[in-house]
Structures are given as structure tokens and as C-alpha cells.
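Feature request disguised as a bug report, sorry. It would help if multi-protein outputs had a clear separator. Right now it looks like this:
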Amino acid sequence: MLLETNLPLKHYSRGKVRDIYDLDDKLLIIATDRISAFDCVLPDAIPCKGQVLTQLSAYWFDYTCDIIKNHLISTNLGDFPDRLDGHLSELEGRTMLVKKTERIDVECVVRGYLAGSGLSEYKVDGTVCGVRLPSGLVEYEKLDEPIFTPAIKASSGHDMNVSFDVIADKIGSELAEKLKETSIKIYDKTSKHAQKRGIIIADTKFEYGLIEDELILIDEILTPDSSRFWPAQDYCKGVSPKSFDKQYVRDYLNGLEWDKKPPAPKLPQDVIKKTKEKYLKAYLLITGSNLPKNIYGMKC
């Protein structure tokens, strides 16, 4: 279970889940098996989680390339620097070689259903990030149309939900409109595909960067870490849905006497096993196949 990496490369950044290394005009992004909840990295890893995040992102990047270019260059070990030959078992299946971009510090959230922080705001004033919704909606209800509800990225802690006007003031109205239009196009196409495969994408987030003023889709895309995935066959508005994402871990933690501050509690083996199964099931349903077999590393 890969919790961290230590490669003979210049370190670029380390997030809750990803370790990123600098290759001048490129980046090497490694999705570890770390899992976070309530802004805390848990002490236990979820086996195969990093492979699911990477391979599912690669699948969606290819599926959406007719809408927008993305930063992915390769997930093939043979395309990585030779000095990594001794680390192939760490990297296989969980690593992306990508173009380096000028990141736009906006979380581009698209919601197709009323859930999470959107529901909390709606209960107070009938809006989500300033978007007025019809009265009388209930939790988990499908919206008439998907809505764009951006957030400003935070260096630590929760990103801050804001209105579209705040984003337009921050980055310019033309670029803000482009982010909104592109994000909704991606959500429309991918959510219809997922629905046919038995998964509802309730909401998700996208990140973008610029290369010489060209908008590029970056980071991960439509994974169980960045999205709410619900089984379509069980969906009923007003009823808490099952999930194919890390909500299962959040639900377990919510049942503990924990103040949501570090250090996070350990996960029991049955929760780890069930979470792994959910991630693998999401990949299978969406792509129609199991994870590719590894040559060097752990079999999933």
C-alpha cells in the first residue's frame, strides 16, 4: 500500500493524495493510496486506490478530448525518465506524465443533484453559490439543469464556495465564462455515459490550467475522490444514496467520537476492504473492464 514516494527527482508538491515531481516543462503525478476525509489524511491506505484514480482519469481525459485538450502525455512506464527504472513497482498504473501548465486557482464544481454543501446553502436562502433554485427541493433531488458552482482553491482546509461573479472579478469574465461553459459540457457528456453504465454522477469538480493562453483540463477528472458517484438502480430523491466514492469512509468516521482534527483515527480492515471494493466497482462499471494487470506491482 503506497503512502508516499521518494524518487530521484526534484519535488514539486505533495497533496493529500498525490506526490508531484518536477521535470522542467512536465510533471510526474503519482496517485498514492492515501485517503483523506474532513481535510485530514488518514493513517491507513486503500489498496489499489491510486491505480483507480489514475486509470479512470486517463479514461475520461480520452473521452472528453473532443471538448477540451488536457495535460496528459502518458501513463506508460516506458515514457518516464530512465532514472526511475528502479522505482517501476511504485509507479506502475498510478502515474501520469503531464504537461506543466499555469494553474487557474478555481475549483470548477458542477452539480446535477442537490447534496453536500449545496444543500446546506439551499436550506438557508434557496440558492447554491448564488444560483437561485426552485423552492421545495429535497435532499438528493435531481436539478432541472446542472449548475456551475465554483470555489476558490485554498492552500489548506476547505475550498471556499463563491458566486460566479466573484470568480469573474478574480480571473476576468471571459475566462470565467469559458470555465463554466466547458465544465458543464464535460459534465453533460460524461454523466450521460455514466448513467448508461449504472452510475449517477451527482456532482464533480474540474481544474484547469493555461499553456500560452490556451485552456487545458488538468489534475484528475471524474474519479471517486473528486465526484459523488451513486448507483443508479438504487436512486430515490430524499433517501440517502449508497455510494461508489469515499462517502463510505466519511460515514464511518461520522459515527466515531472524533473532533475531525488531526490525528485521524485508524480504519478497521473491513472498512478498508469495502472502500477498495467500491473504487474498483466504480472503475469497472464506468469503463466496462477491470484495472489493467500490473507487471511489476501489486495486483488489484
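(second protein starts here, but nothing in the output says so)
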Amino acid sequence: MASSDKVDSVDYIKHHLQNWQVCKTDEGWVWNQCQEAGFWTFNVDSLIFSFLLGVLFSFAFWKVARNAKIEKPGRWQSIVEVIFEFVDKSVKDTFHGRNPLIAPLALTIFVWVFLMNLMDLVPVDLLPWLADKFNVYALGAEPGHTYLKVVPTTDANITFSLSIAVFLLIIFYSIKVKGIGGFIGELTLHPFSSKNKFVQVLLIPVNFLMESIGLLAKPVSLALRLFGNLYAGELIFILIAVLMSAGIGGIVGGGIAYMVWAIFHILVITLQAFIFMMLTIVYLSMAHEDH
């Protein structure tokens, strides 16, 4: 019996960590049979939830901006103004160049990443259970074969997509501000330099290696930090659900454990959105520095 419970728990965890996928195989496009598929594999749930949350954020802030009142602002307008002022102050304190894109970019990153992280507080079985029931009754699918992950930032594809977009902006503004020669010089003449031209040429490979590693580490660290923290948080929620289903602690004990971790996790998801935003501002500020 214990062995059976162990297998069921492992299967439960694997099921909740599996994305709803579509991929291209030799037989064409297939759903949820992508274990050995190649490059063309899409995590549909991550794409849908991240897109919907982005639309929700854009619409909500647009609505507030359109109906903003100077006297007696509404509660939602006050919340948006607090967020806007917080992000604007962070940009002014950190970014030392002049670029009208940075503040809107920072606001978008902070709110969008926060909303994607916030999906981690939705009970782990709720939306997958509803999706499974829909597939069974509406589409005639077999029960228990519906995969759905509702937290986009627990998908490394989403976090790397965000970090690569930031990385491309870093490259773009580095070249725009410093020029091609300045950008190449930054990669090859720093951190070691010499007044002796011969020594300077000898140091170019060393400088290029060190600066390239530092440059490539920026998107990797951005993506992995966000992904790792949210993936670990989601896994803990799943483990709490496993303990509740196994009868350990009961519904009351499991509910208390869920609430305690959820309260702590609110700080985590907010902090991770803030860190992603701040590192983006810092990296773009460095890209605007012309030595």
C-alpha cells in the first residue's frame, strides 16, 4: 500500500509539472505527446496565461489612465498611482541616462512578472481540475489526461524569453550610445588595458573572454533566478497538496500549511518581480554609459 501511495504521489507531482504542449513530429502536429519531439514544441498553457495576464495589465492601466480624476480618485486609481510612482522613483534613482523607454519598460516588467508570479497562489488543483472536466464532458477526452500549468514563470521558456528581450535591448543601446567601435572596444580593451600596444593586443583575447562571459551571464542570471524561485515555490504548493491527499495533517493542517506558505510566498513573488525590474534598469543604465 505504501508503495502504491508513493507511485501515486510521484505521478501526481509529475502530472502537475507537465505543460500542456503541442509539437511537430514526423506524423504532424500532436498534443501532449512531445517527450521526444524536436525544436518545434510549444507550451500552450504558458503562452495563453502570460498573454492573458499581459492583456489584463494593459487594459486595466489604460482604463485608469483614461478615467483618471484629480479630485477624489478611486481606489484602483490610487493603487495604480502608487505602483507608477514607485517604479518611476526606482528608475530615477538607478538609471543615469536619458531614455523615455526605460520607465514604461520597467513598469511593464514589474507588473507583468508580478501577475504571472501571482498565479502561484491559485490552488494547484483548481484550474487543472476545471480544464480536465471541460475536456472530459465537452471534448470526450479521458479523465486525468489534461495537463495544465498556470504559472508562466515556472516555465524556463517564458523567463528566458523575457531575459533575451532585455539582452537584445542591452546590445542595441550599447551600440547606439557607444557605436560599433566603442562596443567592440568595451569587449576587447577592458578590464585589462596597457599603454603598450603590443601588450594591449595580447590582452584582447583575455578581455574578450571575460567581458563575453559577463555579458552572457546577464540574461542567464535574470532567467534562472526568476524560474528557480517560482518553480521551487510551485513545487512546495504541490507537496502540500500531496500531504493533504495522503491524510497527513488533515484538511485543517494542510490548509494552515498552505496559508502560511502563501503569505510567505507573496513576499517572494513581489521580490522576484522587483529584482527582475531593477536588474533590467541597471543593465540598461550600464549600456548607456559612454566611457
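Even a blank line would do. Unrelated, but nice: Confidence is low (pLDDT under 50) at residues 1-7.
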